[in-house]
Amino acid sequence: MLRSTGIITVVFTGIATECGVESSARDAFSRGFYSVVVSDCMSSPDKNGHYRSLEYMKNLITITNLKELENIWSGGKKLSSTSIIQDGDNSIHHEHIGDASKSDVSPNTPPADEADL
């Protein structure tokens, strides 16, 4: 249904990072959508589980924060090659692994490999 309306990017927020958010983001990724997780717009009753889930997802899915996403959508900027996941005093730095052309999270830009779908 999403694909038939031209949607190719799915942005995830919510509760239970390590359950509903991670499983939904991974499912969208496996179906060929460009998945973006907004790390400071989700939570979990298990803080360690929240951060562990973000670490697991970072190799497949773009992880950003709300401020960076707002900047991208308001000005058409691309994600930097290094994104920062930040929540309170804790920061996790990581590099986005994958095709650099997939760093554009504009909702109307297809992932680099969409022709293969």
Main features:
30% helix, alpha/beta, single chain, 3-stranded parallel beta sheet, disordered C terminus, 117 residues, Rossmann fold, 27% strand
Protein described:
This protein has one domain (3-100): Isochorismatase-like (Rossmann fold), CATH 3.40.50. Helix 1 (17-30) runs parallel beside helix 2 (47-57). The longest helix is centred in the first third of the chain and has 14 residues, at 17-30. It has three helices and five strands, in the order βαβαβαββ. Strands 1-2-3 form a three-stranded parallel β-sheet. Strand 4 (82-87) and strand 5 form a beta hairpin. The model is unreliable at 81-117 (pLDDT under 50). By secondary structure, the protein is α/β, with parallel strands linked by helices.
Q: Helices and strands in order, then pairings?
A:
Layout: E1 9-15, H1 17-30, E2 34-43, H2 47-57, E3 62-64, H3 66-75, E4 82-87, E5 90-95
Parallel strand pairs: 1-2, 2-3
Antiparallel strand pairs: 4-5
Short recap of the structure:
The protein starts with 8 loop residues before the first strand and ends in a 22-residue tail after the last strand.
